Amino acid sequence: MYAIVDIETTGGHASGNGITEVAICIHDGNEIVKRYQTLVNPGREIPIYIQALTGINNEMVENAPYFKTVAHEIFELLHNKIFVAHNVNFDYSFLKYHLATAGYDLQCNKLCTVRLSRKIIPGLISYSLGKLCSHLSIPNEARHRAAGDAQATATLFELLLQSDTNKHIAQALKQKSKEQVLPANLPKSDIDSLPYTAGVYYFHDHKGKVIYVGKAVNIKKRVCSHFTGNNSGYQRQEFMRNIHRITFQECGNELMAFIQETIEIKRLWPAYNRSQKNLDFAFGLYSYEDQRGYIRLAVDKRRKYSTPVHTCGSMVEGRNLLLELIEQFDLCPKLCFIQKNDQVCTGNNGLNCACEGHEPADEYNAKVQAAINQLKHALPTFAIRDVGRNDEEHSCILIEEGRFYGMGYVSHYFDTDNIQQLKNTLTPYPGNDYMRNLVISYAERYPHKKVMFGANAMAL
């Protein structure tokens, strides 16, 4: 038995909205054997735009029963039935959530007439209920009302049952089939094409725009995990509705996938990627030459397109670094913005201080450059050589003077201990502190995959 359902609501996600109308058609596979319809008092104001869409206003539901009053009757109608709806996960998530708040645990097999229509009646421009009714000459006298849409869905379902020569419905109902948990607009073929390898995957909207980028050790397993559960929150429900296509990019290993994800988020700025959009350290140590020709050092907030000498997690961290450089290289605290008062410079006990012009600019700048060089030399230069996407290649990631340079794939026979040749082979990417720290952390965990350069060079 099938329970063909349509509901009207005050909004798009169950946890923050109420139900205003429920209609259920019980279908035995041949015809409708029972109908149920009721208005529901949602316990909140119905937004004006919803009133305009459905025609259901606050006065109409004022004396209607609250959902908890009709919950038992609705549960009995749905229990042990196959739950059918147009975009089934929307209706199911609302009824499951509100039945749960009334003390009922709804567990049904589901069928989505959007997904089934795409398979059984392929080639249409749109699979909205209105467009399908128009294309198939299905009457609907009460569009956007639960009873009218439930009846139209039932008629559509009967046509799908009659036209299903390839047994798509039976296939969807198989116990191992997970198709009904997929977003309504996502072709199952996209899921079937996903590999069980490490890489990056992309969710696209109806225009093809990337709305989410993710990384995975196992692409297929990770993608499918997005569609499990019945989270009724607004963000998830909106997210699911907007997924129309999935593409992917295989990577050689987990580290390559992590970095590629970060690169793609920075490049594409997808709407649903909340994290990894601002992962750079917030402060940097900058150098510049003032009007008198002295090189000055300063800690400041990171700014777009600026290149600091060194990155810092906080202003305090940067200040402490500057204090160490001042002491070690005899730098002027005023020219480093550590001492900001008008008193005698504390550097060199006030003698021959650069801020007073007593120390020539070229002599002072040599000390500053020595301090900068030490910072750069203290930063590591190395590569990570690891497994590739197949047996014919290795993956390779390069860190140069503490900065992420780029990555790519090289032949087993490629000589990675020549840094210039390696740089010519790899694809350079804009790096950030998160990517650098990922690689450095990985090198600490797997030192045998690390390739040094120069006198300490070694190859795998």
TrEMBL record:
InterPro entries with a match to the protein in the record: DnaQ, GIY-YIG_endonuc, GIY-YIG_endonuc_sf, GIY-YIG_UvrC_Cho, Ribonucl_H, RNaseH-like_sf, RNaseH_sf
GO MF: 3'-5' exonuclease activity; DNA binding; DNA-directed DNA polymerase activity
Stored PROSITE patterns: GIY_YIG
GO annotation, biological process: DNA replication proofreading; nucleotide-excision repair
Limits of the GIY-YIG domain: 196-274
SUPFAM superfamilies xref list: GIY-YIG endonuclease, Ribonuclease H-like
GO CC term (a single one): cytosol
A Pfam family matched in the record: GIY-YIG
Function: DNA polymerase III is a complex, multichain enzyme responsible for most of the replicative synthesis in bacteria. The epsilon subunit contain the editing function and is a proofreading 3'-5' exonuclease.
NCBIfam families assigned to the protein according to its UniProt record, in alphabetical order: dnaq (TIGR00573)
Subunit structure and binding partners: DNA polymerase III contains a core (composed of alpha, epsilon and theta chains) that associates with a tau subunit. This core dimerizes to form the POLIII' complex. PolIII' associates with the gamma complex (composed of gamma, delta, delta', psi and chi chains) and with the beta chain to form the complete DNA polymerase III complex.
Protein known as: GIY-YIG nuclease family protein
Organism of origin: Mucilaginibacter agri
Organism classification: Bacteria, Pseudomonadati, Bacteroidota, Sphingobacteriia, Sphingobacteriales
